[in-house]
Backbone:
């Protein structure tokens, strides 16, 4: 292990902490950058015991594409859920549990996928299989659970696999 | 401020208010606990998102400054909202569901929430194995 990795166990995390601190202060001053750098030095050290393995980002540029896809889906799904809440009779609504088998193995990638599923309206991720190879999702209205599974696997998991693995 | 900015900001605020009220209405209307969990996650995405975009446009059009606080608010919302929803879903699983009432992850697997050791002090007392008579 090199000295650099001892001082910065998660270089990306350290850099994000500096950027986030400067953005929170909302002005770029030397003061803000120095304090951000202290945070970027101290916080990864304090939390390294809880995050032993650094995630490997294979193609970070695809993250931007993933964010755009998710933001677009959030807008579309918001409208769909609003229509369900406003106009669908309760008797016609089909809430459903869906099991999604995972090909992702990196814990960071699965966390991002679970967060994405929850933030896109109409689906909430609830639990993982005991070996982490499947995720339990609750759907607000899913007459066809297989379609939900295929959509999540195709739209999100495939892209995350390209980013992380 | 220019007219186009005022129109865009007003439209975004109306959209935000609409989705906020639909999210709250969903809490009242939806029938079961898990479905009600869906309603507030909606309000935080498009509802809060529209207010934040409106705020950024306002500061840009009125002062000519680019404000980053809105980006930070949405970042923290996207980090925290799924965790809150996950905790509520977990509590629901523990209180109201059994492994038999859920689809199985695979033939010989259980969901992690049901294989972990039951808490000795918690929301639910373990039911007695045999009825006392």
Residues:
């Amino acid at each position: 292990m090199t000295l650099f990795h001892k001082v910065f166990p998660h270089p990306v995390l350290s850099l994000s902490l500096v950027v986030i601190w400067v953005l929170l202060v909302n002005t770029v001053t030397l003061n803000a950058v120095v304090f951000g750098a202290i945070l970027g030095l101290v916080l990864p050290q304090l939390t390294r015991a809880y995050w032993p393995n650094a995630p490997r980002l294979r193609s970070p540029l695809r993250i931007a594409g993933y964010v755009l896809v998710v933001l677009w889906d959030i807008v579309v799904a918001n409208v769909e859920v609003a229509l369900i809440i406003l106009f669908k009779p309760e008797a016609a609504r089909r809430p459903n549990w869906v099991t999604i088998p995972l090909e992702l193995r990196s814990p960071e990638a699965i966390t991002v996928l679970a967060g994405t599923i929850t933030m896109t309206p109409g689906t909430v991720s609830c639990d993982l299989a005991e070996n982490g190879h499947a995720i339990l999702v609750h759907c607000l209205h899913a007459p066809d659970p297989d379609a939900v599974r295929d959509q999540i696997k195709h739209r999100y998991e495939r892209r995350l696999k390209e980013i992380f693995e | 401020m220019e007219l186009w900015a005022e129109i865009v900001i007003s439209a975004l605020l109306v959209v935000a208010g609409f989705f906020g009220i639909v999210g709250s209405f969903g809490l009242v209307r939806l029938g079961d606990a898990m479905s009600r969990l869906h309603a507030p996650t909606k309000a935080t995405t498009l509802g809060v998102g529209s207010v934040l975009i409106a705020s950024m446009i306002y500061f840009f059009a009125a002062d000519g400054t680019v404000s980053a606080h809105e980006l930070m608010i949405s970042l923290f919302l996207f980090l925290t909202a799924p965790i809150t929803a996950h905790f509520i879903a977990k509590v629901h699983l523990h209180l109201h569901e059994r492994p038999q009432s859920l689809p199985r992850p695979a033939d010989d697997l259980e969901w992690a929430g049901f294989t972990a050791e039951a808490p000795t002090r918690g929301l639910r007392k373990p039911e007695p194995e045999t009825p006392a008579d």
